[in-house]
Amino acid sequence: MGKYTLCESCNNNTGAWYADVYSEVAKEVAYDLQKRPPLKHSEILTFSMQKLPALAFVKQVVTMFCSLLPLEEVQRLGFDKFLLDKESNTIDKTQFDLRIYLTPPNVGQLMVGPCVVSYTAGASIEAICASDLAVYPFGFILNLTPQYLIEYGASLLELFDTKYEETYKMNWSLMYLERTDEILPLPLQFKPL
Q1: To 5 degrees, how large is the angle CA 98–CA 53–CA 27?
Q2: Is residue 164 helix, strand or coil?
Q3: CB 140 within 8 A of CB 133
Q4: What whole-number distance in Å separates Cα of residue 22 and Cα of residue 52?
Q5: What is the pLDDT of residues 4-22, one digit of tens each?
Q6: pLDDT over 50 (residue 1)
Q7: Contact indicator for 13, 84 with CB cutoff of 8 Å
Q8: Coil, helix or strand for 116?
Q9: Is 172 within 8 Å of 49 (Cβ atoms)?
Q10: What is the pTM of this model?
Q11: Where are the beta strands (DSSP E) in 122-167?
Q12: Three-state secondary-structure class, residue 76
């Protein structure tokens, strides 16, 4: 999707281990969305999956973010070791938050590397460092400042506690989000909820 922070061999391994799972889940959700009337901003849909290979799915999402992050950040978060051991579910989840949302079909591919987004919180100004990527039907937000909660989307952190060879029954409540600017998108640049 972007630059390589893993060597070619490692990138090929992660693709072989995780990409097909992600692709199948994305196709299933996209197919389901096509059968529905158009969604409205902030609408929430629940998807049920009987056999989600949860760890492989979330590892592919992390792999996609690795193409946006500097190598030093990938290593600081432990993403490199986490991805290169396909069985591993060991990661320090206090270092980040990972969220999922539904995107409009016209988004195509959107990748926004880590940016600092400032906002007012009462009388103070807060700053969130986040990265955002979207490939229909999913969008993902990687919050690198998890002490500041993001209200958009649903957390994927529980998927990190699953096992690689196992599948799980999942009920996902996913929020549909539209951006305020599709020409020059920034992380968290969604219409108000």
Answers
A1: 80
A2: coil
A3: yes
A4: 10
A5: 556 676 667 777 889 999 9
A6: no
A7: yes
A8: strand
A9: yes
A10: 0.91
A11: 124-135, 138-143, 154-155
A12: helix
